[in-house]
UniProtKB/TrEMBL annotation:
Organism for this UniProt entry: Methylobacterium mesophilicum SR1.6/6
Superkingdom assignment: Bacteria
One Pfam family hit: HTH_1
Molecular-function GO terms, alphabetical: DNA-binding transcription factor activity
Protein name: LysR family transcriptional regulator
SUPFAM superfamilies: Winged helix' DNA-binding domain
Domain HTH lysR-type residue range list: 22-76
Transmembrane regions: none
Length: 109
């Protein structure tokens, strides 16, 4: 499921997975690696999301000797949780229709 947040901002499974990865790992780089994504690309996606909302979704600190890190803000947690709920509710709502489509598919050859 993809949600259009603005004319040039989408929230979908990729950004949700990135946010989830940051929540799990405490790192933008680690979350990106987990998805096979460069740090630059991961940071770009986070920057896009941070700019789309009234408050940033991710707070990051620069690396160095002690290492950097990233955490979801309370807004980031709320956005990710809301997206995951919408995804679950949408899946439940269309489950019967998906079963119908699957029953009408040709068998695998």
């Amino acid at each position: 499921m993809r949600i259009e947040l603005g004319s040039d901002t989408l929230l979908g499974p990729g950004k949700a997975a990135l946010l989830s990865g940051i929540r799990d790992t405490g790192s933008i780089a680690a979350a990106g690696r987990r998805m096979g994504m460069s740090y630059k690309r991961a940071w770009y996606l986070i920057d896009t999301l941070n700019k789309a909302f009234q408050e940033p979704l991710v707070s990051a600190s620069k690396g160095g000797r002690r290492g950097g890190g990233a955490v979801l803000t309370s807004t980031g947690d709320a956005i990710l949780d809301s997206y995951l709920r919408m995804e679950r509710l949408a899946s439940e709502a269309v489950a019967g229709e998906l079963d119908l489509l699957a029953s009408l598919m040709k068998p695998d050859s």
